[in-house]
Specification:
298 residues; alpha/beta; Rossmann fold; 3 domains; 14 helices; 11 strands; 14% strand; globular
């Protein structure tokens, strides 16, 4: 029975009170009020939960879903939540169990960065812990986003965001027709790490129509000499702050490398590029295409 129907019934009871005895009237109104309260507060409880996020990317997704009113705890690296003065319960890896439990969360969202021991300890407090694996590709980013939308009762919002992201990706991909370049995607320094096949970041390369020069790499760590030997046409450096500028200068020293000659060495925002969310993936892909269109393709 819908709430509006109950209200209508209550009005009807009051209008016909003259033909009811007072006890019947009281019982009818009391019953109706109780049912109304159950529906109102039950619906509120179902839609609003107490959520803790232990990963910046998961926190970003909560904000994209406009469900941040459900967020009660986060890590010190969750910039949006910290700015909103949400309770900080963890660093990048270390979780303050006592503080986390004290917030009485209904659900804790984690990635595989959170240790299995910590996850099991949280579960012992009868807290629901949902683990999100690192997506292997864009499809998994989308699937996980829908899953989160379902958890937070925002499935329609999640589906709308995914639909928009897919349309934008197809539009962006069409901006570089017949593009066929060797790309090196750097995601760390000292040692140098590269984007590997079978990771969502490799989709940046494939969606651009490029070839990952690290296709044969298995561990992620590479030497600068091996990169130069592969002679990439383009280098994307995904690092933070001064390290990015230092790496840029290092690659510029190799004057005979194609990426240097064609001025196709770029620094990319790590906070966006490395976050497996549908919104940041699209934003990063759009940035990459814009950078490539702004330089001559030799």
């Amino acid at each position: 029975m819908y709430l509006s129907e109950l209200i209508g019934q209550t009005s009807s009871i009051l209008c016909h009170s003259s033909i009811l005895n007072i006890d019947t009237l009281k019982k009818s109104i009391a019953f109706t009020v109780i049912i109304m309260l159950i529906l109102v507060f039950g619906a509120h409880a179902a839609s609003k939960q107490r959520i803790i996020s232990l990963a910046p990317s998961l926190t970003k997704n909560i904000y994209y879903l406009e469900a941040d009113n459900q967020l009660v705890g986060c890590t010190s690296y969750c910039t949006e939540a910290v700015a909103d003065q949400k309770e900080i319960v963890a660093s990048a890896i270390k979780v303050n169990i006592e503080k986390t439990v004290s917030l009485k969360p209904d659900i804790i969202l984690v990635t595989t960065i959170t240790s299995p021991e910590t996850i099991e300890l949280l579960k012992k407090f009868n807290i629901r812990v949902e683990v999100f694996e690192t997506p292997a590709n864009t499809d998994e980013i989308f699937t996980q986003f829908i899953r989160m939308g379902q958890m937070l009762n925002c499935e329609n919002k999640a589906e709308a965001i995914i639909s928009d992201a897919k349309l934008k990706i197809e539009s962006i991909k069409k901006q570089l027709p017949a593009f066929n370049k060797k790309i090196f995607f750097q995601i760390g320094a000292e040692p140098i790490f590269t984007v590997l096949p079978g990771t969502f970041m490799n989709d940046y390369i494939t969606f651009l129509g490029g070839e990952n020069v690290s296709n044969d790499v298995r561990t992620g760590a590479v030497s600068r000499e091996s990169v130069v030997a592969n002679n990439p046409d383009i280098i994307f450096i995904v690092t933070m702050g001064i390290t990015g500028q230092e790496e840029y200068q290092q690659w510029q020293a190799f004057k005979d490398m194609q990426a240097t000659r064609s001025k196709n060495i770029f620094i990319i925002d790590a906070d966006k590029a490395c976050s497996p969310t549908p919104v940041t993936f699209v934003e990063t892909l759009d940035t990459l295409v814009s950078l490539l269109k702004s330089t001559p393709n030799e």
